[in-house]
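Cont'd.
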Amino acid sequence: MVARYELIADDLREGILSGAHPVGSQLPSEAELAERYGAARGTVRQAVAVLVAEGLVGSRQGARRIVLGAARSQSFAELHSFAQWARAGGHRFGGQVVGQRRRPASAAESARLGGEEVLEVLRLRTLEGEPVLVERTVYAGWVAPAVEALPADCESVTEALYEAVGLVFAYGEHLIDAVAAGAQDARLLGVRRGSPLLRQRRVTTTHEGRPVESSDDRYRAGSVAFSIRNSIGANPLVRQALDLRSAAGEHMFDS
Amino acid sequence: MVARYELIADDLREGILSGAHPVGSQLPSEAELAERYGAARGTVRQAVAVLVAEGLVGSRQGARRIVLGAARSQSFAELHSFAQWARAGGHRFGGQVVGQRRRPASAAESARLGGEEVLEVLRLRTLEGEPVLVERTVYAGWVAPAVEALPADCESVTEALYEAVGLVFAYGEHLIDAVAAGAQDARLLGVRRGSPLLRQRRVTTTHEGRPVESSDDRYRAGSVAFSIRNSIGANPLVRQALDLRSAAGEHMFDS
DNA sequence: TAGTGGTCTAGACCACTGT
DNA sequence: CAGTGGTCTAGACCACTAT
């Protein structure tokens, strides 16, 4: 069942991408759209809200909405899963488990993931044949058996876990910064020690809010960037100071 | 005029932060909230949607909403403006213009900002007394006079421009990656050449979609991170491949 | 099967923009 | 001032979850 407002949003989005609503132009009024699509104003508003959330359209009270850009937006899955992101972008990609072991959870990991044992996995991923990403993932004990059952060259862990045990990654918290490559990073990525890496740390949970994994992913500089569009009044990405000196991290990420 | 749904959202948010609705617990049903606040269900839904967008609350059809976290979310202004962000976080901060000059726009800048002349400004910003950020900003010609009129140690350019000429930064597009410090970066930030920096490139526009500035901001590693919470079905931050080899950048950022 | 969130309608009033 | 988007209501039906 696809919602009416989704269909309208799709149609408007296509109009933007195809140039029927060029960047900088005004969108038709809500009343006009409601008539065109034979829908109530509320439904049209819901459709337009989707485009606003995607950053394609800007909105202010009293004035017509304007088209801000024509870049397509990606899904949660594409942010969460390297494989799904790379596939959607038409990239050649691969992955390989480099090391994997069960070990007792540290105090912080236990608080973050629950349980007393975790599974630690080190993966190297390639894009267009080049190594670009080192993933150090710590899985909660309860998913460890399912993860261990995966092949070492599993393309998409996210998809495989869904198919194997119906596990859905639903929520994520991400922290993005830059770090110098360590010895292991450097060896795996083929860069010099100390060279810049883009780091994405994250904790992912199920629909119920149950933590599944915590990961430290490091991209070779120049291979990948994060992109965001925002507007006054709607903006989920935030800066965070990293406490240069004062009392240490109460933050969830401390590895 | 503060909207009803904002007040309800504020109240619910405070309940989450104060522990009345602890992380992992269920939120009251929409019907219950509607009765409690004496509002229609639609209004309550709008309030809860705010919390969902902030990542504080998770939502799925058929089940009660659950509380995901208690971190406060920040505003567009706080992402856009170093001063407003630092002030909201209670940090000590400062800034200083290091260099500034008008020059002809490159072809890319002309396409991005409009006009044939731009104003280029190099600023160094400090956090807790330490230099942490080098800002290289290119302003569109039409705002150049207003920017040049600012004092060299202006704390908040965003606020000053609003007060001086009523300019509002309304929309932004950001690209986040890691780079090695160049000679100038290294000298200004007090780090070694080649050490990792977190880079945020952005283009900002007015309400009308008119481009105002394009900037390349570089943070010393370990000083600042970007943070995001997301969920299946709502997610504005995306990865972007940086084209290791194939034909060069059609992307808007190419400086 | 009852409860809950998701979708949709029809209409009202208000705040703001543009002319 | 007319037009437009923002807020709010009251009620209906549907899809999904939990028991």
